[in-house]
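re the bet — no i am not wrong, look at it urself. input seq straight from the record:
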Amino acid sequence: MSKPQHYHFVLLLSTVVVALAAIANAAAATSITPRFKEAPSFYNSPDCPLIIDESHGFSILFSDQAVHVAMTLDAAYIRGTVAAILSILQHSSCPQNIAFHFVASADASLLRATISSSFPHLNFLVYPFCDSSVSRLISTSIRSALDCPLNYARSYLANLLPSCVHRVVYLDSDLVLIDDIAKLAATPLGDNSVLAAPEYCNANFTSYFTSTFWSNTYFSLTFANRKACYFNTGVMVIDLDRWREGDYTTKIEEWMEVQKRMRIYELGSLPPFLLVFAGNIVPVDHRWNQHGLGGDNFIGLCRDLHHGPVSLLHWSGKGKPWARLDANGPCPLDALWEPYDLLQPKTPFALDS
């Protein structure tokens, strides 16, 4: 018996709906990241060392002679990451000797393709990061963006990067360099220090922890024999061998477990670093982290530079330069970020703050 005419119409309509849904899903998948222009090629100056290691397929990526840079990679901040990479290459005397190590928890293939298309000759690897490895330890903080599991990836670099990478410069995605990163990477770490970063000893260190922390004698004694100062974890030079030997990832996780039970701090991934390392790091000149240009964590008002020379501009805080530029409400210093923006065309890209 033949099917009623309306049956064929419904079947056709269903087919069209499924097809349209597939097209919509494909479009959504391809629009996760914005499109960027291809960056110009950058080449080593004549006095740069020639790095050759026949024992590995990717010689630069595993070489002690390379400058190793680690960053996270996600769709929300990809525009900032691309600008940061361009600034690093543009101001390096040996850009071909830089190895980039990107940590991504989602859309890794698409993000890898985005970096490759903008920087066809870049030496880089992308490492998958499992959100579940840290999500159970994360407590809510003062700003939702700070609760993203990928913000905690810096605590796991020693586990993610291959053991032949001994030292790495970790950088946030909301910054640009205007100096040679090799100078920062060469920071002496002495005989025992695990990491180096600019310290800010004039900051109110006690404000990074709650009254619950300071009223507990056991907790407050954490800093008893340390001249603890605030440092921003968006720019760090890390000795990965010493980190592995000291099992510092476990030490950070232990403090995060305490936080889940007792609420000893309010600000995301920074306080565990302060608890483990503050007072025991090698201080770096402030020029390497002119931070806070994104304002505070609530409003993101415009801020001026700190006094002194500048090698790195960092838009830490809520306000990001690309978001403010898109909204036609940039801060004066956002003009220093804009030359590194490779977005094409210049259309707004939403950022969940």
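see?? Residues 5-30 form the longest helix (26 residues). told u. also The chain has one domain: 60-340. so pay up
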